[in-house]
Design goal:
41 residues, mainly alpha
């Protein structure tokens, strides 16, 4: 069972993986419904 921190980390990791695939952080954020600013890691 995932706790809240694990869920956040998993979501951010997914975002970063998508950004790497697309070669575009802004597009990955848009697809995942997140604002690019700020993007805390």
């Amino acid at each position: 069972m995932l706790n809240t921190t694990d869920k956040i980390i998993k979501h951010k990791t997914g975002l970063l993986n998508l950004a790497e695939e697309l070669g575009n952080v802004s597009k990955a954020c848009q697809i995942m419904g997140m604002s690019r600013h700020p993007l805390p890691l």
